[in-house]
Amino acid sequence: MQLQFAFDTDTAWADQLARESVGLPKLLGMRTTVIEPGHTACALEVRPELVSSYGMIHGGVVSALVDHVLGSVCYPVIEHGSWSATTGYTLNFLAPVRSGTMVADATIVSMSARTAVVRIDVSNDGRPVALAQGSATLMPPKRTEPH
Amino acid sequence: MQLQFAFDTDTAWADQLARESVGLPKLLGMRTTVIEPGHTACALEVRPELVSSYGMIHGGVVSALVDHVLGSVCYPVIEHGSWSATTGYTLNFLAPVRSGTMVADATIVSMSARTAVVRIDVSNDGRPVALAQGSATLMPPKRTEPH
Amino acid sequence: MQLQFAFDTDTAWADQLARESVGLPKLLGMRTTVIEPGHTACALEVRPELVSSYGMIHGGVVSALVDHVLGSVCYPVIEHGSWSATTGYTLNFLAPVRSGTMVADATIVSMSARTAVVRIDVSNDGRPVALAQGSATLMPPKRTEPH
Amino acid sequence: MQLQFAFDTDTAWADQLARESVGLPKLLGMRTTVIEPGHTACALEVRPELVSSYGMIHGGVVSALVDHVLGSVCYPVIEHGSWSATTGYTLNFLAPVRSGTMVADATIVSMSARTAVVRIDVSNDGRPVALAQGSATLMPPKRTEPH
After folding, report:
1. pLDDT digits (tens, 9 = 90+) for B47-91
2. Residues in D touching B136 (Cβ below 8 Å)
3. Of D57, D84, D59, D90, which is closest to residue D71 (Cα–Cα)?
4. Chain C residue with Cα closest to B115
5. Main-chain dihedrals φ then ψ at residue D115, nearest 5 degrees
6. Angle B59-72/A59-72 helices, nearest 10 degrees?
7. Of the partner residues C92, C110, C128, the one whose CB lies closest to the CB of residue B94
8. d(CA D60, CA C60)
9. In what side-by-side order are the strands of the sheet with D30-36?
10. Which residues of D touch C95 (CB under 8 A)?
11. In this prediction, does ipTM exceed 0.85?
12. Among B81, B103, B78, B76, which residue's Cα sits nearest to residue B10?
């Protein structure tokens, strides 16, 4: 889907950096690596503290990354100050993750004034490990909170 | 769905405690509070470090809790040493979370030799905040890893 | 979730009957059997023409019934003349269906001015055969079409 | 994902034609138009009898088409005589359908001995109208029925 930036790219990067400097993104070490109209990518290093006693990453780390990019991909293409609140998504796990870098790629497939539908591919050092599809509710700047 | 414990409850609790003493469950502070045949509940305190700059918890924390209970609910009703690997799930967010305690309740709705289908309700101080449905693949003890 | 009828029950039944007298509901023989605030049930007889060469009903018949009740359950609790448009849903199949009657039970779990989140249980002569969860977008009477 | 036909293309087409000559596919007029390793497409004409009193196709018709291609895409790449049983899927509706031809394109994203994960795009005269993601359980020839 062809989309335009709703504001300048410097602002898009600054906003994303701010969102990743607090809360869960900071705790898990998520860092957005690509911001394009309708597409973002976010990476996460598999640190030992994220690994279970079986040597695999907890599925919740993958879920968290999916949730994060589903919201992130919407911001640069909606009016500055607007909200993107994840309404829900579906996630299929394809393979376990043990080490290396996970990357989640999010692409907006459909977008209206109120809703964006997004597909997400998660890979681990280039190997597909999860697949997701979800939607976000887009809210104008005046509202002070999502949902 | 009526299900029996596959092994004694002390073992079920010890196993769950072990799973929550490492990786993401430890990092986020997940602690299982109910283990019954076909049903578990897991709680998480909304610590300030999980909250975004907008004052709300990141959706990924809810996702992680959902993923965790989807696996946890299967262990006590499968043979000891078996694996439960989440194959996928769907999550709908109902309301934002700002503080207090989140609890995810998981119930097995259907179970065969290979698959369990599970429904999950997430509440925040008693208020419904998310709804999920997913499945887990059950694997016998001999296999040394899921997927 | 506690909900009230938005209009009288005779009107709710007449509207539902009208929706089931055309299109896919008529073709497949769907007939709503319960209309209560926040809950509806819809039945479908497994006629031979719905059965595959393997003797089982096509999954699409189950899907169609799920889609139908997800919309139907919203109408009686929104303003008369409003629209309910299914935004999406997830379906897990639990067991095959060969004959008899299928019943889909839909319950509204959460409802705001714009969105309803619904859970659906599908049974076949009392046996659970599918499980679904989805959402519908609610639109006021002035708009002349959904989506 | 690169996949090979598990048997010859004439057999693949004959099998698919047989599946579409009975049950729901026949009733709704589904006809597969593309069979390639890991990819199939299936078309459906929007006949007046599939249209609701609001002039739109029932969402269940879209659901049925999605369910159909999710199974169909697996057959040509599994051993002849094997089963593909849909385990579940998620569907997001993007736009209403009123007339013309609907086409569902299914692509296998991941495949193991037991499971295939599939993405599906549904279009209406070239316009995207729905998006789906699901999985199918693959069963060897000896078992006489799915699930």
Report:
1. 998 998 788 999 999 999 999 999 999 999 999 888 888 999 999
2. none
3. D84
4. C94
5. -140, 140
6. 150
7. C110
8. 8
9. C30-36, C39-45, C101-111, C115-124, C127-139, C83-93, D83-93, D127-139, D115-124, D101-111, D39-45, D30-36
10. 147
11. yes
12. B76
Q: How far is C96 from chain A (nearest CA, A)?
A: 22
| Model confidence pLDDT, tens digit, residues C127-140 | 999 999 999 999 88
Neighbours of chain A (3+ CB pairs under 8 A): B, C, D
- Please list every residue in chain A whose beta carbon sits closer than 8 Å to the beta carbon of residue B145: 54-56, 96
**Sign, CA torsion A73/A75/A78/A84:** positive
Strand-pairing partners, residue B25, are none
* D113 secondary structure, DSSP code: S
Q: Cα separations (Å) of B132 from B101, B123, C39, D63?
A: 18, 12, 19, 20
Give tens-digit pLDDT for C79-103: 988 888 899 999 999 999 999 999 9
Q: Which of A65, A79, A64, A3 is nearest to A32 (CA)?
A: A65
Partner residue opposite D90 with nearest CB, options B87, B90, B135: B90
Q: Which chains touch B (3+ CB pairs under 8 A)?
A: A, C, D
Total residue length of chain C? 147
Q: Which chains border C (3 or more CB–CB pairs < 8 Å)?
A: A, B, D
Q: Is B91 within 8 Å of A89 when comparing Cβ atoms?
A: yes
Chain C residues in contact with B110 (beta carbon < 8 A): 92, 94-95, 128, 131
Task: Inspect the interface and report whether the beta carbons of D135 and B87 lie closer than 8 Å.
Answer: yes
Is-contact A58 A50, C-beta < 8 A?
yes
Which chain A residues touch B96 with a CB distance below 8 Å? 85, 145-147
Residues of chain A with Cβ-Cβ distance to C88 below 8 Å are 135
If phi over 0 gives left and psi between -120 and 50 gives alpha, with beta otherwise, what is residue B20?
A: alpha
Interchain contact, C135 vs A87, CB within 8 Å: yes
Closest alpha carbon within chain B to C133: B133
| Residues paired with D102 in a beta bridge | D44, D124
Q: Shortest Cα distance from B31 to chain D (angstroms)?
A: 30
Query: Between these two residues, C123 and D55, which has the higher pLDDT value?
Result: C123
Q: Give the position of tokens 């694997």.
A: B139
Beta strands in chain A (DSSP E): 30-36, 39-45, 83-93, 101-111, 115-124, 127-139
User: Pairing between strand D30-36 and C39-45?
Assistant: unpaired
pLDDT tens profile D72-131: 999 999 998 888 889 999 999 999 999 999 999 999 999 998 999 999 999 999 999 999
Residues A48, A54, A57, A58, CA torsion sign: negative
